[in-house]
Design brief:
By secondary structure, the protein is of the alpha/beta class. It is built from nine helices and five strands; from the N terminus they run βαβααααββαααβα. A five-stranded parallel sheet has the order 2-3-1-4-5, with helices on both faces. Helix 3 runs antiparallel to helix 5. The longest helix is centred in the middle third of the chain and has 28 residues. It is globular and about 50 Å long.
Length: 198
Amino acid sequence: MRVVGLTGGIASGKSIVSAMFRELGAPVIDADSVARDVVEPGTAGLLEVARRFPGVVDAIGRLDRAELGRRVFADPTERRALEAILHPRIREEVARRLEALDRAGATVALYDAALLIENGLHRGLDGVIVVSAPESVQRSRLAARDGLDEAAITARLAAQLPLADKRAHATWVVDNGGTLDETRAQVRRIWEEIRGSH
């Protein structure tokens, strides 16, 4: 089974593109979803996070993401400590899900991860799809979606690898700066190409 990465910049529309691939029948493993699953109540991941970061589990045994976020995004050392707990578990769970798809007869799967390039996960994949949008579009989407001011938008954009750098690793680029129909047509063409080349 071939595995193709799907990534993009913040507010580039990666979630919309991922949903379009799903509509076409693509099996998609979403790194964000896996990251949530490995810290569900009762998991070893949540127990380890709770030990390392006291006070981040609420009264009903669920992870208080806002509190954890406040602590790890303000301190790179704390963020690395969290990543050391989560990343091996995420990798293990992604491998398990890919194996299940392979056993079920899938010939190709998409791995949807925002930090695919930054974390070097694109190496060893059978191609990378990068969802791209002009910075002006990213800025207006962030303002509308998250209610962020210019300074916060600039900080969020600066925290990620620039889209131009991500595009340099792309096998395919989805230009998501136009209409949904234009994006959907690109997604369909890319999916047909991926399925036709196995």
